[in-house]
């Protein structure tokens, strides 16, 4: 019973945070590892829960009208394709080197966000054009690929990229990020399920708690806006960077 409560509370918190600013995997993966799931099984089970939470937060964002559907119609296929290739790809680069590269990039994002006054505070989106659509496609494909094979910080990079390319505020960037995240998460989940790396008796309860957390988190984010999302975004970016350093050192 205590393990069940621990899983439900951990899943809720992870999805609540992830729906606002990304980085929920920093919470959800350790929760599954603590209760004794092997690494590969934990990854697949976490994808099940993460996709469930992402589904509800995406629903809430879409329903609120904070997503740009014209843009997403163009970017979602690239996120899907990137995720498929990411899961299937056997990388030549070692995980330790990848950790270092991602750490440098995500720390740079955090520092830039912190020092750039007004970044993401107001929605400055004007219009879609060929240049920003192409850049968005590259962003969606690259981070779909990254989310498929590795994952930490994918939502953080997506949110930051959408702010820089389209001039969104944090609220609208987070809303569109959730749709792209949902695409890559569901794609990866199907592949994990096919390979038998999902523990369903845990995943179902974990998924339900994350659905609730994702829905409530998105609701709070929509109500509070960028003033809430930006500081949580910074905290989660620093958290992802710290986790990568810890993994590399050990």
TrEMBL record:
GO CC annotation: plasma membrane
Protein name from the UniProt record: Probable membrane transporter protein
Subcellular location: Cell membrane
Family statement: Belongs to the 4-toluene sulfonate uptake permease (TSUP) (TC 2.A.102) family.
PANTHER family found in the cross-reference section: MEMBRANE TRANSPORTER PROTEIN YFCA-RELATED (PTHR30269:SF0), TRANSMEMBRANE PROTEIN YFCA (PTHR30269)
Keywords: Cell membrane, Membrane, Transmembrane, Transmembrane helix, Transport
Membrane topology (UniProt): Multi-pass membrane protein
Transmembrane regions: 27-50, 71-91, 97-114, 135-166, 228-246
Superkingdom per UniProt: Bacteria
Record has Transmembrane helix as a keyword: yes
Main location (coarse class): membrane
């Amino acid at each position: 019973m205590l393990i069940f409560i621990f899983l439900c509370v951990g899943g809720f918190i992870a999805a609540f945070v992830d729906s606002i600013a990304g980085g929920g995997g920093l919470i959800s993966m350790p929760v599954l590892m603590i209760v004794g799931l092997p690494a590969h099984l934990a990854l697949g089970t976490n994808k099940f829960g993460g996709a469930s939470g992402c589904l509800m937060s995406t629903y809430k964002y879409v329903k609120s009208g904070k997503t740009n559907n014209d843009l997403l119609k163009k970017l979602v296929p690239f996120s899907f394709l990137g995720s498929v290739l990411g899961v299937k790809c056997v990388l030549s680069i070692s995980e330790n080197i990848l950790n270092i590269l991602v750490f440098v990039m995500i720390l740079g994002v955090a520092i830039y966000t912190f020092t750039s006054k007004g970044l993401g505070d107001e929605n400055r989106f004007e219009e879609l054009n060929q240049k920003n659509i192409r850049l968005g496609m590259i962003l969606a494909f690259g981070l779909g690929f990254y989310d498929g094979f590795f994952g930490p910080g994918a939502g953080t990079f997506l949110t930051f990229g959408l702010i820089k390319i389209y001039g969104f505020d944090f609220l609208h960037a987070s809303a569109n990020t959730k749709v792209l995240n949902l695409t890559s998460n569901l794609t990866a989940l199907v592949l994990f399920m096919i390979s038998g790396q999902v523990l369903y008796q845990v995943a179902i309860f974990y998924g339900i708690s994350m659905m609730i957390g994702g829905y409530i988190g998105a609701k709070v984010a929509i109500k509070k806006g960028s003033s809430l999302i930006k500081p949580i975004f910074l905290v989660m970016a620093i958290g992802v960077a710290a986790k990568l350093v810890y993994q590399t050192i050990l």
